[in-house]
């Protein structure tokens, strides 16, 4: 690090010596470096314990990787407190087992925190608990293989997303969580106000509605950062955001959350859907392949059977128009719906395409939002949904209406005059899309329930902790 | 990209050909690569226009970097629409000006979007508008030098933070925005409920309070992800979060926002304040030095005078106890305050330390939160504040109480029993800190008002867009 610091500014840098990180080694590094013969200190939790005649074998994890480090403990160092679930500090010499596996021959073992399973610890050794059971213990579930692996993959996917956009010269924009826009048509919203009645009283002016007192207007949790990104795109070029988004819907399905993460990107000077599609396809393949490179062990930990790359990774995504999609569904004999394509139909279309992700493009304009650019025939908009196996819709996007007069006619509220004004001064064509991070993780890791793809899921009647 | 994709998985990858990115070149790349003689297409906004006898000189920016690209336009290609603020597409050959500056000799110029300043565009050519003036036009202000430079630096600082923690094996955790914890003692909170009365009606059970209907308990916007991080730290090891945080305070100072970004880190197996301090100092110096490396031009654009590295960058941060700090303030003759250290006193302490950041450590326990670890003498806690020039307090942190019995006595609410239970099963010592991203940007870029360090500031009576 120090040499890196010195690189350019020629600053005499006070070197911190990285005290805290030298004290002990993270197991991910110990396994990677495999310095056989070296005295090493590790700290972590006992995941498995096998007591034999003269030796005790303990598998230790510190959460830094999917793999455990095997510790070989002479019987006289085994205390009663050294149990499944306890936290320990171990000092010893790294060696290779007769089978060639890296292990640590313990010379000193200290239990830092006991774990008495009979005292109410919900997890048991050598037991695979169901995801539903584990989900009851949100505060402890990151100690399980399943959830820890998913959270490491979530961390990696976020990193890959940032790296991807950084390489392509996109700026990461923190779009706001609080917004006074209430008319984006993306479903139901949460409103926000101070909890303290005294604050409201002190700020009250002329019998204003209590909802408006703090910010001067009714304020909501964001349903999308798109409109804000469009403002940024018209000064900074390509931009994206990756952050929390909210829906106040009464839905408890395996695909819905009240709070979820959304990746949204806005492409400057984007003039046709094909460019938007190729950009989305490129990103998704990048994430899938990079994550397989960085987190192979975690994918294996989640599912020993399913951790193969998806069959579509070497294929071009399919594109069909909305009209063609409806025809296919009719031919398949699925019950017709007047408007749109429902979840069952989405999954049928993906199956029809041999489980290759499929773009449905050019939607009837009355089904889509006001900001989408009209197609040449005036009945459609330049919009796309990308459907994938497991979740169905995973990305939604469009070109944006860049004609000032057309947009003015469709603007749902005067409160959005700022958005209209973006088209008045030095306007550019743009297009963009939104991708649900949790649904992406469901597809990537074959996770049936979206609630297991993030640390603290929130859905109706559930906001524990 | 393609070769990178092939690296490991041996997948026959469908190559997207990166259509959209080849169409035109981002100005940051054009300037970096400086391929004199190459035919190049750029798109951007006219920032400056000088009309001479036979040639027109236009400075073009596309937001990708602080620098503008000079375009040399033969007079016959200059149309009336080619004005300050308009968006353009230019094709031409890259060359060097007589002074050695890279420029583009235009062969084709197309105005994409007009900009009639007299029609209400708030910015004028060759004019430096004040930050207060610019702040009135949130939707357009990213087109100014000041704000675009600050947003590029914000992007870079976020990136450096993620890179720093990734290198050190920390996992990035998305702690929740919605929480039912209301007792962390970090000030005033916003409450959240569905806006739609029909949703509330449909979900209502037995005359419940309307605030509790959707989630089953009253729900707030997070004031800190710390308690959630502590749960994660006890399964995943070192963790951090970088995300939005909220305060419902009626404060309109140049240092406060209702919505701001906080970096919070929790260090596994951290047993003393000194380790925590050296970790914070290391991170801050890394961010400052890396940002000077990546965004020198932006720092210059913000302030031609002040873009020098801070004098403290090659010095060790200072540490004094709370008791010593109070003695220093008394000797300086500053009016005494009973509890704590106020903003004026913070800045006086930093000045006393020759403007080197200073840790104030070991605070009276009654001034700090319940979760902080008691010092040996039982009257203090192992807490720290880091004070910096310009903003005063910039980091707050502590060791966490890891004694189950002591914590049980101090727990403010039964709703936090989950937090107590973390100490019961395989507990470990931890410590952590929180750093306000906007205040960090204020210190880094000498920005007087916090509202200019993020794209869409929210404060009392202000939640536009």
UniProtKB/TrEMBL annotation, chains A, B:
Its EC number is 6.1.1.22. Keywords: Aminoacyl-tRNA synthetase, ATP-binding, Ligase, Nucleotide-binding, Protein biosynthesis. Coiled coil: none annotated. One of its GO terms (molecular function) is ATP binding. Residues 151-455 form the Aminoacyl-transfer RNA synthetases class-II family profile domain. It holds the Pfam family tRNA_anti-codon. GO terms for cellular component: mitochondrion. It is an enzyme of class 6 (ligase). One of its GO terms (biological process) is asparaginyl-tRNA aminoacylation. SUPFAM superfamilies: Class II aaRS and biotin synthetases (SSF55681), Nucleic acid-binding proteins (SSF50249). InterPro entries: Aa-tRNA-synt_II, aa-tRNA-synth_II, aa-tRNA-synth_II/BPL/LPL, Asn-tRNA-ligase, Asp/Asn-tRNA-synth_IIb, NA-bd_OB-fold, NA-bd_OB_tRNA. PROSITE patterns: AA_TRNA_LIGASE_II. PANTHER family: ASPARAGINE--TRNA LIGASE, MITOCHONDRIAL-RELATED (PTHR22594:SF34), ASPARTYL/LYSYL-TRNA SYNTHETASE (PTHR22594). Belongs to the class-II aminoacyl-tRNA synthetase family. This is asparagine--tRNA ligase. It comes from Papilio machaon (Old World swallowtail butterfly). The lineage of its organism: Eukaryota, Metazoa, Ecdysozoa, Arthropoda, Hexapoda.
């Amino acid at each position: 690090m120090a040499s890196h610091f010195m690189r350019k500014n020629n600053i005499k840098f006070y070197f911190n010596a990285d005290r805290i990180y030298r004290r002990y080694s993270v197991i991910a590094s110990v396994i990677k470096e495999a310095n056989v013969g070296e005295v090493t200190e590790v700290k972590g939790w006992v995941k498995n314990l096998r007591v034999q005649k003269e030796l005790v074998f303990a598998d230790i994890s510190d959460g830094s990787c999917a793999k455990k480090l095997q510790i070989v403990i002479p019987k006289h160092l085994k205390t009663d407190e050294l149990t499944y679930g306890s936290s320990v500090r171990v000092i010893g010499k790294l060696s290779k087992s007769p089978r060639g596996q890296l292990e640590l021959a313990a010379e000193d073992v200290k239990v830092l925190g006991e774990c008495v399973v009979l005292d109410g610890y919900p997890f048991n050794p050598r037991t695979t608990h169901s995801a539903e059971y584990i989900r009851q213990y949100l505060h402890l579930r990151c100690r399980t293989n399943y959830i820890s692996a998913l959270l490491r993959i979530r961390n990696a996917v976020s990193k890959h997303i940032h790296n991807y956009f950084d390489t392509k010269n996109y700026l990461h924009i923190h779009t706001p969580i609080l917004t006074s826009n209430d008319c984006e048509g993306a479903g139901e919203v949460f409103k926000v106000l101070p909890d303290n009645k005294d604050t409201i009283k002190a700020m009250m002016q002329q019998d204003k509605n209590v909802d408006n007192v703090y910010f001067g207007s009714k304020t909501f949790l964001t349903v999308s950062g798109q409109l804000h990104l469009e403002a940024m795109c018209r000064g900074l070029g390509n931009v994206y955001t990756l952050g929390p988004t909210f829906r106040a819907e009464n839905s408890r399905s395996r695909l819905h959350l009240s709070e979820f993460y959304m990746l949204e990107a806005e492409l400057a000077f984007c003039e046709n859907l094909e460019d938007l599609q190729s950009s989305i396809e490129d990103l998704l393949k990048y994430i899938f392949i990079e994550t397989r490179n960085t987190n192979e062990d975690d994918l294996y930990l989640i599912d020993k059977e399913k951790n193969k790359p998806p069959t579509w990774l070497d294929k071009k995504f399919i594109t069909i128009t909305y009209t063609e999609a409806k025809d296919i569904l009719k031919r398949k004999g699925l019950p017709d719906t007047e408007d749109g394509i429902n979840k069952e139909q989405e999954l049928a279309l993906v199956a029809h395409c041999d489980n290759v992700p499929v773009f449905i493009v050019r939607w009837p304009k009355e089904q889509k939002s006001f900001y989408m650019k009209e197609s040449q025939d005036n009945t459609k908009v330049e919009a796309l949904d990308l459907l994938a196996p497991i979740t169905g819709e995973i990305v939604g996007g469009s070109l944006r209406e860049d004609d000032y007069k057309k947009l003015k006619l469709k603007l749902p509220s005067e409160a959005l005059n700022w958005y209209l004004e973006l088209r008045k001064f030095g306007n550019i064509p743009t297009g963009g899309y939104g991708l649900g991070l949790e649904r992406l993780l469901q597809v990537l890791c074959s996770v049936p329930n979206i609630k297991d793809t993030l640390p603290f899921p929130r859905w109706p009647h559930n906001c524990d902790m």
